[in-house]
Amino acid sequence: MKEQVIFTETAPRPAGSYSQAIVYGSFVFCAGQTGNAPETNTLVEGGIEAQTRQVLNNLANVLQEAGSSMDKVLKTTVFVTDLDNFDLVNSIYTEYFKNKLPARSFVQVARLPLNALVEIEAIAHI
To answer: How far apart are CA 77 and CA 116, in angstroms?
Structure first.
């Protein structure tokens, strides 16, 4: 099987040495997305709620570029800097996964790149 590197201008440029996503066979492995606006590559204002929405929009755009969608996500990992935000992030998250909730891990971390409050990575199928 051949690997395909995915890049779209509708999601932020990677902040390091990685790809937005890799397609391998019928699977899409998405790098973690933070709440950066694609146009400025800086975190959106509005705290955890605005960042969570931007993260999920970025993820949806990467998946679309790869020929997939949020409906085809199998597994996510959600990283937050404050687990007290679980309910708020979870309520926004479920808006984006209306038809099927993927398997998920939800963990608190000490710090995220660019001082983001939330990051989400995903594995999907095409």
So the answer is: 15
Environment class of residue 124 by beta-carbon count within 10 Å: exposed (0-12), middle (13-18) or buried (19+)? Answer: buried
The amino acid sitting at 78 is V
**Superfamily (CATH H level) for 3-125:** RutC-like (3.30.1330.40)
pTM over 0.90: yes
Rg value, the chain, Cα: 14
pLDDT per residue as tens digits for the range 53-100:
999 999 999 999 999 999 999 999 999 999 999 999 999 999 999 889
Q: What is the DSSP string of 68-98?
A: --GGGEEEEEEEES-GGGHHHHHHHHHHH-S
